[in-house]
């Protein structure tokens, strides 16, 4: 058990699972408590390299695009039908309508939906005490309701951008955090005509991290069609501090 705040990248492929790992999922641990930030396609498989699906205490969903929430259905199947069984209901935080959305994806009516296994709770702006973690959420710039998350424990903070275009709310949320996991889906030049409230480029991720004054930047949510070196170079030039590419399996002591 670790008392220090840790985060493990379970999956970080942008928009779809990639050849080197699943879509978005980050395992946050402190004092033996385990929370997943997002649970995108394919992530339940890779998660089992780090803990059992029975060890998950809470799931915190940023938004309801498939690459961020679809493996909640796999977690439901695993926790319901695992013959070693007896798993308690766990909370799932998400945008309004998360329970109904996932019930529909599973082919169920909203009631009973996936209740019994999960207790769905709606995000509201501000701070939420979840186990030993303080989780502060803020709405960011994406076509569907999307919450970026700041997770704090023991005086340390990590901030996960979720999916977002340029966002002053993200800069405010990330102020002075030790670790920023910021998405960098777009490339300068290639995606310049895309809508603004969608994704960040590597340069924009670096600028947001610099403005927020974070210690360390990890660029993430790179789709398989990106050249990772381009995203990393753009973020590094804009941030002016240490930048890494997220990789499935990497653990950070925050
Ligand atoms: Zn995404
Ligand atoms: Zn999205």
What does this structure look like?
The chain is of the alpha/beta class and about 250 residues long. About 20% of the residues lie in helices and about 30% in strands. The protein has helices at about 45, 65-70, 70-80, 100-105, 170-175, 200-210, 230-240, and strands at about 5-10, 25-30, 35, 60, 90-95, 120, 125-130, 135-140, 145-155, 155-160, 180-185, 215-220, 245, 250-254. The chain has a seven-stranded mixed β-sheet. Strands 7-8-9-10-11-12-13 form a seven-stranded mixed β-sheet. Helix 6 (about 200-210) runs parallel beside helix 7 (about 230-240).
Strand and helix layout:
Elements: E1 6-11, E2 25-30, E3 33-37, H1 43-47, E4 58-60, H2 66-69, H3 72-81, E5 90-94, H4 98-106, E6 118-122, E7 126-130, E8 133-139, E9 147-153, E10 156-160, H5 168-173, E11 179-183, H6 202-212, E12 216-220, H7 228-239, E13 243-245, E14 251-253
Parallel strand pairs: 3-4, 4-5, 5-6, 10-11, 11-12, 12-13
Antiparallel strand pairs: 1-2, 1-14, 2-3, 7-8, 8-9, 9-10
Helix pairs in contact: 6-7
């Amino acid at each position: 058990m670790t008392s220090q705040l840790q985060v493990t990248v379970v999956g970080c492929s942008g928009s779809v699972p990639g050849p080197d790992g699943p879509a978005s999922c980050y395992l946050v641990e402190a004092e033996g408590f385990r929370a997943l930030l997002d649970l995108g396609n394919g992530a339940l498989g890779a998660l089992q390299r780090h803990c059992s699906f029975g060890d998950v205490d809470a799931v915190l969903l940023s938004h309801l695009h498939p690459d961020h929430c679809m493996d909640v259905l796999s977690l439901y199947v695993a926790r319901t039908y695992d013959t070693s069984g007896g798993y308690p209901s766990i909370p799932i935080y998400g945008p309004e309508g998360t329970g109904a959305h996932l019930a529909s994806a599973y082919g169920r009516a909203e009631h009973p939906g996936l209740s019994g296994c999960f207790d769905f709770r709606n995000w509201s702006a501000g701070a939420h005490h979840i186990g030993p973690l303080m989780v502060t959420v803020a709405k960011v710039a994406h076509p569907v309701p999307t919450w970026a998350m700041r997770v704090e424990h023991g005086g340390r903070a990590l901030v996960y951008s979720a999916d977002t275009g340029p966002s002053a709310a993200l800069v405010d949320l990330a102020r002075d955090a030790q670790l920023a996991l910021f998405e960098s889906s777009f490339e300068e030049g290639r995606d310049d005509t895309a809508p603004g409230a969608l994704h960040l480029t590597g340069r924009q991720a670096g600028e947001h991290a610099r403005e927020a004054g974070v210690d360390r930047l990890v660029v993430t949510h790179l789709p398989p069609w990106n050249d990772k070196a381009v995203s990393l170079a753009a973020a590094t030039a804009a941030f002016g501090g240490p930048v890494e590419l997220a990789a499935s399996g990497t653990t950070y002591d925050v």
